From TrEMBL:
Pfam families: Ribonuc_L-PSP (PF01042). Coiled coil: none annotated. It comes from the Bacteria. One of its GO terms (molecular function) is deaminase activity. One of its GO terms (cellular component) is cytosol. Belongs to the RutC family. It comes from Tunturiibacter gelidiferens. InterPro entries: RutC-like_sf (IPR035959), TAT_signal (IPR006311), YjgF/YER057c/UK114 (IPR006175). This is Enamine deaminase RidA (YjgF/YER057c/UK114 family).
Amino acid sequence: MESQSRRGLLKNAAKAAVVATGGAALAGTAKAQVTGKLEKKSYPTKPASDPVPLFSSAVSYGNLLFLAGVGAHFQGTIEEHTKHVLDELEKNLIGSGSSMEKVLKVNVYLNDINDWAKMNTVYAGRWGKIPPVRTTIAPAGGIPGNSLVEIDLIAYI
């Protein structure tokens, strides 16, 4: 038996995939599940004070909704900060036509990774039957604005 190169293995795998799918991917018969025209849309969460904002708080593309990070910029505990952030995110979701149950992905940024367990006590149960996937990190420089936690997310409308 002769030894195959990596390129040869990949070519054979591609041929096998074409056979297994009946060539649908290459024949152009596969179609994306898209209805209507996709467009980028912004959802202002508060009145605009600056003529040109630095970033959008909520933007959708198709039925995907992206919410910018929300922090808690006041003195308090990690539990108080987490509750405030989740309440604000929920308001933004509802104002954009979505809900906590429709959240797909969450990024949590903790000022101190040792707050992970306390943050989880407030975080748990806010997302409906199927919680979103989540990444939690503690950035080396901390959270801007002295917040103990910041959360951003992706949901659908």
